[in-house]
Amino acid sequence: MRISTNTLYQAGISKISSLQADQAKLQQQISTGKRIGAPSDDPVAAARALEVSYAQGVNSKFTDTRKTATTKLSTLESNLTGITNLLVSTQSTLVGAGNGTYSDKERANIATELSGSLQALIGMANTQDASGNYLYAGFNTATKPFTATATGATYAGDSNQQLLQVDAQRQMAVSVSGDNVFQAGGNDVFASLSNLVTLLNTPITNAASQAAFTSGLATAMTSLQGSVDNVLNVRASIGSKLNEIDGLNTTGSARDLQFSKSLSDLQDTDYASALSDLSKNQTIMDAAQKSFVAVTGLSLFKYM
Amino acid sequence: MASNILSIGQSALAAAQAGISTTGNNIANASTPGYSRQVIVQTAAQSQNFGYGYVGQGTQVSAVTRVYSDILAKQAVNSQSVSAGINTYSTQLSGIDNMLSDAAAGLNPAMSDFFAGIQNLSASPSDIPTRQTALSNAQSLVNRFQSTNDTLNQMRDGVNTQLTSSVALVNSYAKQIAGLNDSIDKAISATGNQPNDLLDQRDQLVLELSKQVKTTVVAQNQGGYNIFVGNGLPLVVGTDTYALSTAPSPTDASRLEVAYQSNNKTTVLGSDSLPGGAIGGLLQFRTDSLDPIQNQVGQIAVVLASTFNTQHEQGLDLNGKPGGALFNIPAPAVSSSSNNTGTAVVSSQIVDARAITSSDYRLQYDGANYKITRLSDKTVQSFTSLPQTVDGLSFSQASGTMNAGDEFVIRPTQNAATLISLAITDVNKLAVGGPALSSTANAANTGSSSISALTAGSTYASSPLASAIGLTYNSALPATFTLAPNSQPVTVTSGGTSTTFAAGTPITYTSGATISVGGLSFVISGTPANGDKFTITPNSTNGPGNNTNGLLLAGLQSQGTVNNSKMSYSSAFGQLVNTVGNKARELKVTGAAEAKVLDMATAAVQSESGVNLDEEATNLMRYQQAYQAAGKMMQIASQLFSVLLTLGG
After folding, report:
1. Which of A174, A223, B234, B371 is in the most buried spot, having the most CB atoms within 10 Å?
2. A-chain residue closest to B546, CA distance
3. In what helix (H) or strand (E) does residue B361 lie, and over which residues does it extend?
């Protein structure tokens, strides 16, 4: 085939410039660590990488939400521990109250102590979290849930529990409403304590009042025990939720790791092959340049 | 005799001289674009009979011709326009390809942040800074949609500009080719010889023209070129030219189309009648990539905003009021053709965002039927009346009269991404609590029927229920429900048919029918017993810790919503990126293949017509030697003459 001088130059230049383009591409892959510069480099992997990184973002958002849930549940847990301790110590105080040798005066002293416990309990039931929201108010977090009355306390909250999306398929209640903690199952702890105070303040004058005291004390003790059991139940459910969150955190971070690995597989540069390609490319480029100079250097005019 | 020898030598000398200057000209033009190498055509001069035989009378140069192959040139021209078309398309699309690859500029990060803000709201529903962040993230999402669409609109403007300059180039080439047709014709008539350089110039212009538009050359007998562009539009006929121009599309004034001028008439050409070349590439890019991509971005914006609004309307804000719209969503753009003769104004609304497609629609009236065409796949539906609902869009005639042949184009999503905006600025109005409405069946009901959850419509927030509504069933035929209070009309929709009952009238009961009253709707189904009662209660107290609707809003992120609830927002965007990537890749690959074909076609032309300097060097030496030999011969002739003179002396 007859080759024109133009073709000779054109072919040399176009080969060298296509090698240069390849080199620039490899160089970009090596310096950025990313195999995919634009979706057209690998449309399937690019779209997949987009979805994976989005899913990773969603997953890590659930991790954040679980931190919030843990904080909320732990606050509840520690507050309920205090409440349990208060109630248990009240119970042990009451063990002595039935003692038949106690005078009215001694029972009145116990009543004063119980009345203090009742105030303390109402205080604890009105605990606020760091942002000033009441813990035991249901959705009415801005309103003080419990107000002391002559016969115990009234509840101003509602029975709702705040749910949080702690994982893709899991909504978890992270609050408990006050009525469910303190006034559940017919055992109103405030009323029980208030009744006890009244009972202990009532002097025993005869067998009838003695009998009324004994039976009243027994009823109140049973009711108080019911309340303690209920608080312990609530604590147990919070404990199991905290456990569940731990479990979700473990699977969450495993998933995160998996997403990172998928992303890396999809879009990261394979350095071994990229560097080897670059070195191969350089060798070819070297040869192309040398042969171009050699071929274009030949001219009959040199010999005329 | 001797004088005869002298003139033979002289003819050889002249031929060698012509050869040397032709060779010199080839060397001088070795790198001139479009230059075809020239050779002299040398023939023996008429020989003379001397009785004993014919004696040669030397040589003569009968022509200087260019080495040129019609077929090879045609291949190069064809290949040039195909290659230029793909290159233009590819260059344009790579702009979008690069934009989408930018992690910071894509839609996903903004969507991700937006939903993170909503999720944070669920954890602290009444915290004002958290609400502010959620609202700011919503604004950032709107901004991201807008900037993405703005970039696409800039590309649209770019296409307009480039079309205008390409059309100007085509017209200029057409004039030059017609001029050369004239000059070449005159040169041939005057001298009978081919004007090689003019021919080269004209062929080079044809090649340049083919970079702008698909070009077909039909050579005439007397040497003129007739040029046809696209699918056979005459551009140059002899010395006459026709012009291309740009004109606004009849249904979109901001969109320039290529038009053809003949007999003082301007005809707008469809985008597929001008394949190939830069013009073909630009039109193809706009129709096949830019339009659908921009529509898809708009579709994601509309679906996200609309589904979010619908859920937001079910909740209660911090003031205990039903939530309104969070986003303002633009109505579909309707443009009537500039060729319409009627006065009709068509209006279109998004009825069901989940059902909308990314396509544009054409509404045509033929005097009897309304034809609605989905332009993406040319699916046609025909109706005898308006309004109609197709693909989640309503089409209705707002005013005026429609004449046969009138045409409207409806673009539901093209600029939606630019036009959406935030509807609220007050952080208290984020409706994270809720629900705004609740329904209950009376505990004493004896029948087996149930009431669905209530759905607040988009108008509910502006005029919420003031008090609960009770519905009491009356089994006396026809079975009805009586509302109390009954101050509002009620619409019952069953099987696509709606019946409106005036305020105060009992409503006929159909199991499973949708009952709408006061901007809200619900469904009662089953068999109620006489006297059974349901209650619809508006909730107006919203505890600050209430995050019920917040959880539902956040849940939209992973739900199927787009394209009839088949895809989530982010997977719809992923699909868009995939489509763009695939097309860009396909164009790169075919572009590279076409470039190879063009290289080969060019090399073939060069192989035939290009100058090879070594070859010219050889020719130079050959003609130099011929010249020297002729000179020597003349010297001998002169010596012969001297011998004769000596003999005479």
Report:
1. A174
2. A139
3. strand B361-365
B97 CB near a chain A CB, below 8 Å? yes
In chain A, what residues touch B126 (CB-CB under 8 Å)? Answer: 133, 141-142
Q: What is the pLDDT of residues A203-214, one digit of tens each?
A: 888 888 888 888
pLDDT of residue A185: 81
Residue B557 falls inside a structural domain:
no
Q: How many independent structural domains does chain B possess?
A: 4
Q: Return the closest-CA partner of residue B217 out of B228, B204, B208.
A: B228
Q: How confident is the model at residue B522 (pLDDT cuts 50, 70, 90)?
A: very high
Domain assignment of residue B561, yes or no: no
Q: Evaluate if residue B208 carries a pLDDT over 80.
A: yes
Across the range A103-119, mean pLDDT stands at 91
* pLDDT-based confidence at residue B3 (cuts at 50, 70, 90): low
In chain B, pLDDT over 90 holds for what percent of residues?
A: 76
**Contact across the interface for A43 and B108, Cβ inside 8 Å:** no
Residue A63 predicted with pLDDT over 80? yes
Distance CA B295, CA B304 (A): 14
Contact B545 A37 (CB under 8 A): no
What backbone phi and psi angles, to 5 degrees, belong to B44?
-75, 140
Residue numbers in A near B615 (CB within 8 A): 2
Q: Of A275, A304, A264, A300, nearest to A30 (Cα)?
A: A275
Mean pLDDT for the stretch of residues A58-71: 94
| Residue B402 shares a structural domain with residue B521 | no
**Phi/psi of residue B387, nearest 5 degrees:** -80, 155
Average pLDDT over residues A99-112: 86
Query: Are the C-beta atoms of residues B323 and B429 closer than 8 Å to each other?
Result: yes
Q: Cβ contact (<8 Å) for B558 and A58?
A: yes
Chain A contact for B181, CB < 8 A?
no
Ordered domains of chain A (ranges, CATH): 62-263 (1.20.1330.10)
Provide the pLDDT for residue B649.
57
Give pLDDT, residue B223.
Answer: 83
Using a CB-CB cut-off of 8 Å, the residues of chain B touching A299 are 613-614, 617
Report whether pLDDT(B353) > 90. yes
Q: What is the mean pLDDT of chain B?
A: 92
Range of the domain at B458: 437-538
Residue B548, phi then psi, degrees to nearest 5: -55, -50
- Rounded to two decimals, the ipTM of the complex is 0.85
- B546 near A CB under 8 A: yes
Same domain, B258 and B288: yes
Start-to-end CA span in chain A (Å): 25
| Range in A96-100, A112-116, B84-88 the model is least confident about | A96-100
CA B235 to the chain's CA centroid = 25
Helix (H, G, I), strand (E, B) or coil at A138: coil
Confirm if B251 and B407 have CB atoms less than 8 A apart.
yes
DSSP conformational letter for A41: G
How many C-beta atoms surround the C-beta of residue B296 within 10 A? 23
Q: Kindly state whether residue B34 falls inside one of the protein's structural domains.
A: yes
Q: Are residues B77 and B62 in the same domain?
A: no
8 Å CB contact between B19 and B626: yes
| Six token digits for residue A96 | 């002595």
Interface residue of B578, B580, B582 to substitute, partner A, most A CBs within 10 Å: B578
Kind of pairing between the strands at B407-411 and B48-49: unpaired
| Residue B512: closest CA among B499, B529, B524, B530 | B524
pTM listed for this prediction: 0.88
The answer to whether A193 and A121 are in contact (CB under 8 A) is yes
Q: Closest to B112 (Cβ–Cβ): which among A14, A54, A301?
A: A54
Q: Do B582 and A138 touch (CB under 8 A)?
A: no
How far does B281 lie from chain A, in Å, by closest CA? 18
Decide if B114 contacts B84 (C-beta within 8 A).
Answer: no
Q: Is the peptide bond before B322 cis (omega within 30 degrees of 0)?
A: no
Same domain for B89 and B54: no
